[in-house]
Specification:
Elements (H helix, E strand, L loop, with lengths): L3 E2 L2 E2 L10 H5 L1 E2 L18 E4 L3 E4 L11 H28 L5 H25 L11 E4 L4 E5 L5 E5 L4 E10 L4 E11 L6 E11 L6 H13 L21 H13 L7 H20 L8 H6 L10 E2 L7 H5 L8 H12 L1
Parallel strand pairs: 1-2
Antiparallel strand pairs: 3-9, 4-5, 4-12, 5-6, 6-7, 7-8, 9-10, 10-11
């Protein structure tokens, strides 16, 4: 799982300037990528789409909760260890029992080690918990800007045409030599070499080629409009100005995990992700909801009659039926148009 940029922030990158690899794999805003017979892909990451802007979740949203599973469980275990060893030594001291040096030395060492391990687990837990529910990126087509809610809570904007997009190496496993890649947007200094800020799109993959469909989804929206991409929308995270629903979190984990998986594997994944679901809920409900600045809000106003105003309101009525393939006729675009017809 890819936590690069969240666990170790992009601002601590090894090179302050663009690397040769990043330059060699630049993604150009005005150049269409040939996808062959494949369609663009949104990865169920779009929060809101309209004629004026499109907002997406970050790449860590889909796996939120998985790091919390070991970190929270071990934090509770080691915290209990501190309490247990400390209370035992206090009880033995107050009872007046004669204990040898080994007892006191072992007990003190156990308390110190348990405390340090609990502190480390609390640090790991804060990667997902007690921060923000997600870190949205808003592609402002009307004003040709990209608005970013960073992992530090900072909101900044940059011109779409000036951002240096590339596919970056995000995880290197030294033992297996396996790499993952993500789509990064670098805000550069005037020299067009120095990286000032970095944000990421909502997907990572073991092959660069696997990212092109997601890049084309964003690029075509900005260059060609919502009509070029809206047809692929099937599910949107309901996180605009609020936390996702408790049960939706489980369905989103399932959707992310079972997408493209063999049918016989699905029951196993359902049981596996059921164990991670409570930890996702804990992570989500200990985090704050990201809020855009007034300037961003003022520049992104949706017209009441916008035919491409699509959000979680057009999600499948029954996620059960849709995920099991029993609602193949579902179309967010068609549902939006039907709602507009009713209003007329």
């Amino acid at each position: 799982m890819d936590y690069d940029g969240l666990m170790i922030k992009y601002k601590y990158r090894a090179s302050p300037v663009l690397t040769e690899d990043e330059r060699a794999n630049q993604l150009h805003q005005n150049e269409k990528v040939d996808l062959g017979d494949k369609k663009v892909m949104d990865d169920a990451a779009v929060i809101h789409l309209s004629s004026g802007y499109m907002e997406v979740v970050d790449k860590w949203y889909a796996v939120k909760g998985f790091l919390t599973v070991p970190s929270l469980a071990l934090f509770l275990l080691f915290t209990w260890g501190v309490y247990d060893f400390t209370s035992t030594m206090i009880y033995e001291y107050l009872s007046g029992r004669q204990r040898d040096l080994f007892f006191w030395g072992f007990g003190t060492g156990a308390v110190i080690i348990s405390f340090l391990l609990a502190w480390f687990c609390s640090f790991m837990m804060r990667v997902e918990c007690f921060r923000w529910t997600h870190y949205p990126v808003r592609f402002d087509r009307k004003n040709r800007l990209v608005h970013v809610f960073s992992v530090d809570g900072e909101v900044y904007s940059a011109p779409w045409d000036d951002i240096f997009f590339t596919t970056g190496d995000c995880v290197t496993h030294k033992l297996t030599k396996r790499k993952n890649y993500d789509i990064r947007g670098h805000v550069l200094a005037e020299d067009r070499k120095t990286v000032l800020k970095t944000f990421t799109l909502s997907v990572s993959a073991p092959l660069r080629e696997d990212l092109y469909r997601n890049w084309e989804f964003v690029r075509r929206y900005m260059e060609e409009g919502p009509e070029a991409v809206a047809g692929v929308l099937k599910l949107m995270p309901p996180v605009e100005g609020r936390r996702e629903g408790i049960f939706f979190g489980y369905w989103y984990l399932m959707f992310s995990a079972t997408y493209g998986a063999p049918f016989f594997v699905v029951p196993f994944l359902m049981a596996l992700y059921l164990t991670a679901w409570p930890f996702r809920v804990f992570a989500m409900y200990t985090c704050r909801i990201p809020r855009w600045s007034e300037e961003v809000q003022a520049s992104c106003v949706i017209a009441p009659d916008d035919p491409w105003d699509i959000s979680a309101a057009q999600n499948p009525r029954s996620l059960w039926r849709w995920m099991l393939g029993m609602d193949k006729s579902h179309s967010m675009v068609d549902k939006k148009r039907a709602m507009m017809e009713v209003k007329k």
